[in-house]
Design brief:
Largest sheet: 4 strands, parallel
Structural class: alpha/beta
Shape: elongated
Keywords: Lyase, Metal-binding
InterPro entries: CbiX-like, Sirohydro_Cobaltochel/CbiX
Protein name: Sirohydrochlorin chelatase
Pfam family, one: CbiX
């Protein structure tokens, strides 16, 4: 049972279903079902009817992972194992870098500044996980600089991050997506980024699909050991 956040934007659910189609193609014998925490159907509480492994399609361990998913599973009153969230994992970074490449970004371009844009959370460790990725890219990429930025709650904002990169000599800006699917917050990021190159969300990247399956396998392995 793969559960995503949910959005009123129909592109979001379409992107999640496309990702799960890739998951099914990698493991056709597995019964893979998609659902959402809020804003679109089906809800997790509507589809959780028997023993299941619940994989949160969330990039970080913020409020939805720590509170909403466990609460929905408890409310269902059925035996279910909840896996770890998708991040942190190098495959998310690989997917985000591929999306940048698809958008025309050249690695090692010293004139380019890159913003790694995520949702933002009141849970500081979730924001720090994004910032940690940005710092590693800054060391390894050859770009003029890399800054994490957030669409809500946390700082810096996307315009603030862009100004920091320009102050370090970046003449062009690209925005990498730390979002799984399109929606309100990715659109907000794009609207604040001016003429920057915008990479699309991670979506149906094959490594993200493999990561979903690995979270499932890890949860089953832990359950077997515990038994």
């Amino acid at each position: 049972m793969a559960v995503a956040h949910g959005s009123r934007d129909p592109r979001s659910a379409a992107s999640i279903h496309a990702l799960l189609d890739v998951v099914r193609s990698l493991r056709p014998e597995l019964d893979v079902r998609g659902c959402f925490l809020d804003l679109c159907a089906p809800r997790l509480s509507d589809v959780l009817r028997g023993p299941s492994v619940v994989v949160p399609l969330l990039l970080g361990k913020a409020h939805h992972a720590r509170v909403d998913v466990p609460a929905a599973v408890t409310e269902s009153r059925v035996p279910a194992v909840v896996t770890d969230v998708l991040g942190p994992d190098p495959r998310l970074e690989s997917a985000a870098l591929r999306r940048l490449s698809e958008a025309g970004v050249d690695f090692g371009d010293s004139s380019l500044g890159v913003v790694l844009a995520g949702a933002g959370s009141s849970h500081a460790p979730a924001n720090e996980a994004v910032a940690h990725v940005a710092r590693r890219w800054a060391r390894e990429s050859g770009w003029a600089g890399v800054e994490a930025a957030f669409a809500s709650i946390a700082s810096p904002t996307v315009p603030e991050a862009i100004e920091r990169l320009k102050a370090r000599g970046a003449s062009r800006i690209a925005v990498a997506s730390w979002f799984l699917a399109p929606g309100l917050l990715p659109d907000k990021v794009a609207s604040l980024a001016g003429d920057a190159v915008i990479a699309r969300p991670l979506g149906d990247d094959v490594e993200v699909a493999q990561l979903v399956l690995d979270r499932y396998d890890e949860a089953l392995a832990r359950q077997t050991v515990a038994a």
